[in-house]
Amino acid sequence: MSELVESIRERYLSTLEKIAGAANHVGRNPESVKLVVVTKSQPVEVVRAAIEAGARILGENYPEEGVTKLQSMAGVSAVEWHMIGHVQSRKAQLVAGNFNLLHSLDNLKLAKRLDRFCAEAGRSLPTLLEFNLGGEDSKSGWHAWDESQWPSLLGELSSIIALPNLQVRGLMVMPPLGADAEFSRPYFQKLKRLQEYLVSQFPRVDFSELSMGTSADFEAAVQEGATLVRVGTAIVGARQYKTEV
Ligand SMILES: *Cc1c(COP(=O)(O)O)cnc(C)c1O
Q1: CB-ligand 1 contact for 140 (6 Å cutoff)
Q2: What is the pLDDT of residue 58?
């Protein structure tokens, strides 16, 4: 095993242990949490090493970069590729054709384009709905920090749910950058409450996945109900370059 694989493996396993510890702490089954290893802005060698180290789900932020990597890994191993970054409408076809799960659906126009490209490709795309719970204008996601405004989201969300080639599976949040996990915890709790609200409004829709928590705060996210955590730097180290802006 190369030194790179060895070091990623150590951090991958220790992250899994921390996930299990956080889950056990609140009486959850550790197996109900999936670890997405975020390899955005990392070279292909790091992706290959992460897979060799045991990673089974890889998260990418930029469609072109992600597709280049997943194509170069084709046949290497059975891994899932998740798109976790904001998707511009003109990148919808790349995402519809290549990824196993979209975490970051954030508008109806994109949803309609994804649905159309999925139909053309003869596939369907599992997707999560991204919410902005911090109220920052710069962040993507449906603005949902004010709970009294939640009913106003329902019209657009029901249009998305009705699209035949998108399969809604849950919710995602990226809290404002904070000092520590305790800063993020209220946002995770709020996403959980929003999940309960959407389940009550759309009882036949599957909202079971909660994608929340990064290197800085994944243990708090697991304690609050995360089923997918997105961990990059804590496993694969600092990002080295950015291939798309
Ligand atoms: C980069 C990124 C992550 C991973 O962040 P780390 O701090 O490297 O763990 C998780 N989620 C999203 C949406 C990201 O853009």
Answers
A1: no
A2: 98
